[in-house]
Amino acid sequence: MAKEKTVYTCTECGGTSPKWLGKCPSCAAWNTLIESVADAAAPGKNRYTSQFQSLAKTAEVSVLADIDATAVQRMPTGQDELDRVLGGGMVEGAVVLIGGDPGIGKSTLLLQALDSLQRGGESTLYVTGEESGAQVALRSRRLGLVASQVKVLAEIQLDKILATIDALQPDVAVIDSIQTVYSDQLTSAPGSVAQVRECAAHLTRCAKSSGTAIVLVGHVTKEGALAGPRVLEHMVDTVLYFEGETHSSFRLVRAIKNRFGAVNEIGVFAMTEKGLKGVSNPSAIFLSQHAEPVPGSCVMVTLEGTRPLLVEIQALVDSGGPSPRRLSVGLDRDRLAMLLAVLHRHAGVACMDQDVFVNAVGGVRISEPAADLAVLLAITSSLRGKPLPKGFFAFGEVGLAGEVRPAPRGQERLKEAAKLGFTVAVVPKANVPKKSHAKEFEGLTIHAVERVEQAMEIVRGLG
Ligand code: TYD
Ligand code: MG
Prior knowledge:
The protein is α/β, with parallel strands linked by helices.
């Protein structure tokens, strides 16, 4: 087959060049030109000229109210936690991108999901570009998937994969991984930005036209972004992301984007010797077990999607060198710097000459600002060497002016903590339940705060 013409397109401004250049000729950005297949539009014909428009038939337009909104057909994957993040199961023709560090369990989870889909009567296809068929078979034996009817294709060439999907018409196909697939229309190597984008676009089109739900597995770069262009995230319907530390057994799957369900929903799994098992009641797994309270630890309630989770925030403040370090794991580092400034300015607690380390226990990543108050309390607790009281927790966003802002759906957070036996809370004033609801929070002493210094004062009074 003749090679199609390729052009180099700037990722910043969309300008094109027939050959690769270090600097974009249109916007002068450096290193932004990537290879893509040229549009086969006839030269000299601008499709936006009025002449051309009069030739084209106008497409049919419908009124929104007249369009049938048929409920999407869901195919439950048999893994409740995965279904939860997907919004109830796989959707016909949907494209799901699932990302995560190597070895975190993407292939394992998807093989398990395909097997139970197959057992549920859907036809499935597992395309592997990283492992041989024998390796996949070995894994399936290990997972205890006896007599699995999942079809396996070991292939990395895009055309062959598309042809196979076309011929088999599976209900669900998994491409493991998108970085290994390549199209021979492009000269760049598999895994390059241009290849990933091109292959994902073709596979997306294939999903939409055939109705096959396609799951793309993606690797993650060191920076934590899905390797390959961010455009991949725009193209697909759902972006799921694996979190967790490979050395702990818990794994979180988080929905970053979902056209068919709630975003930020998480599924919790435990990696066992028989693969990933859903954890149906995960609220307490991110607490470390201290027999007695220790300094530098504060529990917070984070709300992930629809489910509250209790997470322990740990801080260690220790005298540092001439340029003290600020390090955070699972929390935003810039936010930590900001919180330390607020702590100094508004509560008079200085950590200027101290190293500050903060960690969210269990490899969970917390992006919501409701963690702020707990981070500050953990830091001061470590600085003073005084533990927070037993059964204590806190949540609330902290602003630059030292104010404590309410967290969304505070009552649910309070309820979850009360259910798990927590007894003392410091929360933003607006999150305190009304008197009429007081019964539901029996046994829980709630301290309302509006400012950071108030929170510090209350905690000092408690300890
Ligand atoms: P894998 O699914 O291959 O990761 P990814 O596709 O995301 O790169 O996961 C491999 C890891 O999971 C490996 O470190 C071994 C572990 N594992 C188990 O603990 N139990 C099992 O049953 C399986 C299949 C893997
Ligand atoms: Mg894999």
